[in-house]
Amino acid sequence: MSNILAFIEVSNTGQIRKSARSLLTAAAALGTPVAVVATAPGTGGSLVDELGALGAEQVYLAESDQLGTLLVAAQLEALTAAAAELAPAGILLSNSIEGRDIAGRLAVRLGAGLVVDAVDVRLEGGQILATQSVFGGAYTVESAVDGGPAIVTVRQGAIEGQAPAATPTVTAASVATNAAHSAVIDAVNDATTTSTRPELRDAPKIVSGGRGLGSKEKFVLVEQLADALGAAVGASRAAVDSGFIPQTSQVGQTGVTVSPQLYVALGISGAIQHRAGMQTAKTIVAINKDADAPIFEIADFGVVGDVFTVVPQLIEAMAARAN
Amino acid sequence: MKIIVLVKQVPDTYGERKLDPSTGLLDREASDTIVDEINERALEVALRYKDKNKGTEVVALSMGPASATAALRKALSMGADSAVHVLDDGLSGSDLGWTSTALAAAVAQTGYDLIIAGNESTDGRGGVVPVMLAEHLNLPHLSFLDSVGFNEDVVSGERGTESGSLAAHAPLPAVVSVTERAAEARFPNFKGMMTAKRKPLAVLTLSDLGLDPAQAFAGVGRSVIKTTIERPARTAGRKIIDEGNAGVELAEFLAAGRLI
Predict the structure, then answer these.
(1) CATH code of the domain occupying A205-322
(2) A32 close contact with B: CB closer than 8 A
(3) What is this model's ipTM?
(4) What pLDDT score was predicted for residue A1?
């Protein structure tokens, strides 16, 4: 079986990012999964067991003392070195900002074909096929890469399951970076979120609020329902632009694209740009005062009514059922 | 200082967007086309610098079919000084690799101190062309910037990470891409619209760029579309008007679907 590289992102504090599981799962479906990690010298060993548990049969530790000082430079060199040494048929990265930065530069460097934001990958006749969900899920497009390895960035939260655990072999290599071609990192601010809510990108349930909530103070209703459902909190662009909630929670064309089991839209009219980010949800529930709101066109269950009376009653009814 | 702003003509997200199922390519007849909103914001970043620094030259550069001229005229009406249109039938259906190769040749020929792009287009949503350009040109990049500032020597900015944000800087020349948080775009004024018609708009073909498709793209991996399937449109389910009991009915619906 061909080697398939999975680029593992690591946080500023050395934690493996959540995307590692889905990347190794996808890699295992295509060939021999090899985890590639850029680490500071001597620090990568502690990650090996964790990556083996996620299915990595080999762990390639690329050590650089420039990690964290140059923007994605050490990570790019890590994958370049691993690709040269392991002749992979495929290279998988997260479709995060960091993942796309590395994938784009690597594709040019290797002269390799690139498919971004894949929601699935599979092997057919020895060729890697990547599925993309285009125009907010209106189309499903399957692509292959002709000539050389396929570089694919994988949408966060799109691939489920977990590869069987393995006891990985470990390769360590030292990589040098070219500071002249890299931006320099000045500061990293890790937001200290105390939220226990699930992350928006891969949450199975999401409650989103729109302009109809009226104010930042009243937006708390969205959070109350989210907590009652164990859901993540999202928002329409209108709610973000009105300052009800930070932009990181924006669902839609220019925000996060989500595909949860349940999507509850509160006071969201359902502009086409918002729908593009959530219409592949399995079940859509909408509550809106305006009976003509376009969100009702795609809702499995729509309530024409005031969110401030319907939602408290819903929370109460859920609590009554739980007892 | 010479700033190139990358511009892409895209189907309007307010309308229906279609792919041609036989080729997987955009059906350009199916929708109205506009300048991608994110490019207007990128242009705004350049124009704000130009407003404060006389002698700044802003060039809008696009690769696309003949109709992309309209996108470039819009950029000129907003305040760009000149435009470059990379236009060649040999570029039809370009993947990310071909696109970035052609754009790299075009910006190199045009000359620049700084290249500003939108972080990702609303149609392809790739978000990789700016960094691919940077790799072709051996330049540093700063992508997905929520805020950006620069002078003649250095560009700096902040972007989001999985767990917060980071600040970085790079010496010029460099490639940056900006998110929709970076700047609110201006509207073209009457004078801008009148003068846009007289501003220079150069058209470059692959041969003008010294690119022979047979050679430039030989040995380069390509992504090739195999199948394109239109998802059936979602239909409306049950819709009720709240008469005092909708919260309870909704709870029943969720319970029936095992969602609570």
Answers:
(1) 3.40.50.1220
(2) no
(3) 0.92
(4) 86
What's the number of domains chain B is made of? 1
Residue B144 belongs to domain spanning: 2-216
CB contact under 8 A, A104 and B128: yes
C-beta separation of A110 from B220 below 8 A: no
> Closest Cα partner for A201 from A15, A17, A74?
A17
Helices (H), A57-182: 73-86, 97-110
Burial class (CB in 10 A: 0-12, 13-18, 19+), A160: exposed
In A12-151, where does DSSP find H-type helix?
A: 19-30, 48-53, 73-86, 97-110
If you average pLDDT over residues A180-206, what whole number do you get? 85
Instruction: Give B30-71 pLDDT, tens digit per residue.
Output: 888 999 999 999 999 999 999 999 999 999 999 999 999 999
Phi and psi for B86 in degrees, rounded to 5?
A: -85, 110
Average model confidence (pLDDT) for chain B? 93
pLDDT tens digit string along A59-108? 999 999 989 899 999 999 999 999 999 999 999 999 999 999 999 999 99
The residue ranges of DSSP E strands in B44-163, in sequence order, are: 57-63, 82-86, 114-118, 141-150, 154-161
CB A83 within 8 A of CB A110: yes
Whether residue B167 and residue A283 make contact (CB cut-off 8 A), yes or no, is no
Task: Judge whether B216 is closer than 8 Å to chain A, CB to CB.
Answer: no
Chain A contact for B154, CB < 8 A? no
